[in-house]
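User: Some background: our group keeps a shared notebook of sequences we're curious about, and every so often someone picks one and asks for a predicted structure to add to the entry. Today it's my turn. The entry only has the sequence so far, pasted here. Could you supply the structure so I can complete it?
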Amino acid sequence: MSDIVREYFALTKPKVVTLILFTALIGMLLAFGGGRPSPVLLFWGLLGIGLGAASGAAFNHVIDEKIDNIMARTQKRPLPAGKIPRNHAMIFAIFLGILSMLVLLTFVNVLTAALTFIALIGYAVIYTVYLKRSTPQNIVWGGMAGAAPPVLGWSAVTGSLNTEALLLFLVIFIWTPPHFWALAIKRREEYKKADIPMLPVTHGVAFTKMQILLYSLMLLAVSLLPFVIRMSGIIYLIGALALGFGFVFYAIMLYKNPSDKNAMRTFGYSIFYLSFLFLFLLIDHYARIFIRMFRIDNLY
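Assistant: Of course. Here's the predicted structure to add to the notebook entry:
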């Protein structure tokens, strides 16, 4: 991969897009129910959603160029490092957004295209331009855009939304604040320098740690709802409980320690948590299909 291609690829925030595509894929596979997934629909759906996510990431790079130049964590990004001109990055972001809409409208459905566009505007404009710079609750409401992928995956398959899809949205929505605030604790001096009102900057580290703990408890409760409404079974329940108590444990350790020692550990576990929670959803889903095939539902 050439250097310039690598820099444009970096504009898409590939690690973030990978997690987005993973949760979108889970949403798609769950939406197929007991039916056989369509490889063609999976391909076009994930491509369109991925392009939309990449477009939002590129817009974020353009809008946050000055902030990225101040913060040590982001100074090596393509724009502050001077590796890609700002106007080229903007054209790239617009191109990805248009391509995303064309793919979704042509090969998927109108609802998914509309929801992807709303998520793109929510992240690139409402969060990055306004919320991020104006309120310490920025990541709470900005997290709505980040919680959209499984809903997009679901609508790509069904052309509609239902309780199950919205529940997947709720899980990621509640997960986002404790996930990001853990990182913000570690990077609070950089956010302060960049004049970004992140919670640890405006309300202090102790308050933020308490919020992380409270959100981890809410997340544990919300993560059990798929089992409560019979969307998932016992395999998911066991996984959700184990992962949820793990998150609470990390949050307690973070809260009890006056230093930042456990901030990045909590941040790292939060990524592990979400990935495996959705993996348990998928494993449980296909386990129940397998069991029904052999007519032993009464044992499940």
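Suggested note for the entry: The chain has two domains: 1-161, 162-300. The radius of gyration is 20 Å.
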